[in-house]
Amino acid sequence: MNYPDEQSLINGAKSYDLSVLGMIYDRYSPLLYRYAMRLLGDDTMAEDCVAETFSRFLKSLQAGQGPKDHLQAYLFRIAHNLITDAYRKQAPLSLELHDSLPDDDRMHPENQTDALLQKHQIHLALKSLTPDQRLVVSLRFLEGWNHEEISAVIKKPVGAVRALQLRALNKLRDLLLMDKKENSYGSR
Amino acid sequence: MDLDDKRFEQIINELDLLKIDTDRDPLKAQKGRRIFLQEAESLKKTVTKRESLRHKGWIQEIQSMLFVPRKERSPMVTTISTILLVISMILGGGGITVAAAQNSLPDEPLYNLKLLSEDVRLWASTDPFVQSKLALDFASRRAEEINKMLNQASVPSDAVQMRYNREIDQAIRSALKLDNEQAILELFQIRNQVETQLESMQQSRAKETSEMTPIMEQTRVMLRQYLSLLDNGLTNPDQLRDQLRLQDQDQLREQDQDQLRERDRDRDQTGTDVPTIVVSPETTAVQNQAGLPTEISTQSNGNGSGGGSGNCLNCTSTPNSQNKNGPNIETTQMPTMGNGQNNNWMNTATPYSGNTLQQPNYQNNNPAQDNSSGQSGSGSSGKSNGKH
């Protein structure tokens, strides 16, 4: 489907053109859902995140605000803030507490594949990043955005985005490698 | 992937594990879309108004304020309400300050504000009845202030006493503007209050220090004279009105004479001829015959009974040697006319002295001066000694 450019979509959205708003939803809601799903790991939470993102978008339009350009960056920024809020509301977890996680069926080693377990560890590691670091890493390596696009979302220069990325990867490496060492010690 | 990314290849590969393409439930996606568009439609309705309801110019702005309620918030109304809010805060703040000043004493910073607020209230009232009440109320405040200052062992200033005097004067004058029946009632109330205040000041005599005594004594004398005056007014308000009128005329005449004297002095100093107007006894006599009785006609000899013989109830005026045709009127009690008896006031403004506040020379007991003024025909009630 061919969509108009972002500026036309923004103008149509500001005049509450329902067809344009429908196009915006069709274009960006799958991306937002995927992004939320990857970070939250829960279908219902991801749907809620998408619905709330678009609701906030409408409210900002009504208040005469909303994006002037970079509509996609604007929507991802809202979604990212919602995901950060969701992380905050969840009970604090740390990698050190990994062995004492609730022993439910999903987390039980016998019922988990290695990939799922590893995924869970990555989620926990992402949670331990700062919101901006998490945003940069997830948009860069999960969504495949370039630095310029990310800088439009976090409203920081490209250099700052690179610095955030570097710090985030260092931290992830430390956390994940440390976790692997612990696992390897535990298995001996 | 740039160079930095290569150092973290392992980590980035692990992140790829999150790149799952979970199929989104199409029903949920459709439902989400529908909800979004419904919400957009509802917001669209509230934002877009009918053409007739939109603010499009200043005429519509005014109409919206007066007649047609609009859904949009008018910027003009916001501006006006802001201005009104600021004004009300300023006035409210001023009002609070004035209210706070009402209990201040003469030696406190807000006292002048208190006096100013009283002046404004008095000035704003046009009804003599209200004026009289207000002036009496303010006089009562002055009395309270004087008593409070006595209790605090501080000396009341001359200014407070003069204001006290002026306010009683104002209360009496305003009361006399009413018809006789009402005037008597008002004068009666004023008398009661003055009497109460005098008693209070007499009782507080024990608290007075030597520094306070002169001014307090002056105040008491002033109040006694007011009592005497009010007694006369209660008996015959018309007579009191006449007295006041004459005293006002007397005061004006004195001012004229002062101007003349000053002009003469200037002429003597500069040696130039300045045209002068001499007020002759005849002129005065003519005025007297015109229906202005009392002391003006009788005092020009300076040694007469003195029209201003305030406490002389039985004396009669001596016929004016230069105005034998003038009416020979029996003088009545003029309580504060600056006669010899009352001139022991030390520079204190006397009520109804003809120069209530400007009388310069209350301690002038020298008959020689009265003679000279009598000879020049410029004697006044306030300056005659009223010797018998």
UniProtKB/TrEMBL annotation, chain B:
The Polar residues compositionally biased stretches are 281-299, 312-354
Q: Which InterPro entries match?
A: DUF5667
Q: Indicate, by first and last residue, each region the UniProt record lists as having compositional bias (Low complexity).
A: 355-375
Q: Which UniProt keywords apply?
A: Membrane, Transmembrane, Transmembrane helix
Region annotation (Disordered) maps to: 246-388
Q: Where is the DUF5667 domain?
A: 104-196
Q: What is this protein called?
A: DUF5667 domain-containing protein
Q: Where are the transmembrane segments?
A: 80-101
